[in-house]
Specification:
Residues 9-276 form the Pyruvate carboxyltransferase domain. The protein is an alpha/beta fold. Helices cover 44% and strands 16% of the residues. The protein has one domain (10-301): Aldolase class I (TIM Barrel, Alpha-Beta Barrel), CATH 3.20.20.70. It contains twelve helices and ten strands. It is globular and about 50 Å long.
């Protein structure tokens, strides 16, 4: 694999979905809408806006229809939704999502505990959903959980990730986001995983979603950049904890990723000050501490 940085990176902002779904308190639709609009104003062009899962399982996503309906949309911005099955897709399409996402895992144990089905069954669901999406002309993104380690099965072989990624690509996903769900990866294990995947899948079809549970996310993103990966998932203000490590941080903060990209001279199109303002807005709204080290440093700098 090449060890050259990409000239440009697309950041996929997952805070309004992956971040907020872990919050315990109710969140007003108006707050979610303002967050998404502030993120778009900061220059983010890919925003995971909601999820159409059963609200019994993820109550924070119950208002996704209202969020999509209330948005003042910006041209050129993709407002995506996570859709676990055909019913979820139909709701997302009716709400006006510009893209949908399906998800599976590398670990059978995780797949069964997280989605109540096997990996094969999750791919079967995805196949049905993607046929419907193709009919409507909607692009589909794929997520793979536990690409480095699993809370139930331990270390994951890189070849397992490559196998699942190939199946998602064959089904028609235009992009596959590789998720270190429990954040156990290091630059060495993430690079080994990416090398295995990229032996079978073009670089332009790959994104990374690297959690910060052990404080390794930025180092792992740097390693992914060295391989040439040019799409990074992150969450404003570090929203979203890690459900498998009590008290641990989960998503890497978008502000921290942007600051690193600025230092590397890699173009991304995001205004850091506006991004930090969006992060502080949602933290104030939730009454929680900001999870971005960069945002805290900028605020203290005055």
């Amino acid at each position: 694999m090449s060890r050259e940085f990409p000239d440009k990176v697309r950041i996929v902002e997952v805070g309004p979905r992956d971040g907020l779904q872990n919050e315990k308190q109710p969140i007003d639709v108006a707050v979610k809408v303002k967050l998404v609009e502030m993120l778009a104003d900061a220059g983010l062009t890919s925003i995971e806006t909601g999820s159409f899962v059963n609200p019994k399982w993820v109550p924070q996503m119950a208002g996704s229809e209202a969020v999509f309906a209330s948005l003042q949309r910006r041209p050129g911005v993709t407002y995506s939704a996570l859709t676990p099955n055909l019913k979820g897709f139909e709701r997302a399409h009716a709400a006006g999502a510009s893209e949908v996402a399906v998800f599976t895992a590398t670990s059978e144990s995780f797949a069964r505990k997280n989605t109540n089905c096997s990996i094969a069954e999750s791919l079967d669901r995805a196949k049905v959903l993607m046929a419907a999406a193709a009919e409507q002309g909607l692009p589909v993104r794929g997520y793979i959980s536990c690409v480095v380690g699993c809370p139930y099965e331990g270390e994951i072989r890189p070849e397992q990730v490559a196998e699942v990624a190939q199946q998602l690509l064959a089904l028609g996903c235009y992009e596959i986001s590789l998720g270190d769900t429990i954040g156990v990866g290091t630059p060495a294990s993430v690079t080994a995983m990416l090398d295995a995947v990229l032996a079978h899948i073009p670089l332009e079809n790959i994104a990374v979603h690297l959690h910060d549970t052990y404080g390794q996310a930025l180092a792992n993103i740097y390693a992914a950049l060295q391989v040439g990966v040019a799409v990074i998932d992150s969450s404003v203000a570090g929203l979203g904890g890690c459900p498998y490590a009590k008290g641990a941080s989960g998503n890497v903060a978008t502000e921290d990723v942007v600051y690193m990209l600025n230092g590397l001279g890699i173009h991304h199109g995001v205004d850091l000050d506006k991004l930090a303002a969006a992060g502080q807005f949602i933290c104030d709204s939730l009454g929680r501490d900001n999870g971005s080290k960069v945002a805290i440093a900028l605020a203290n700098k005055g």
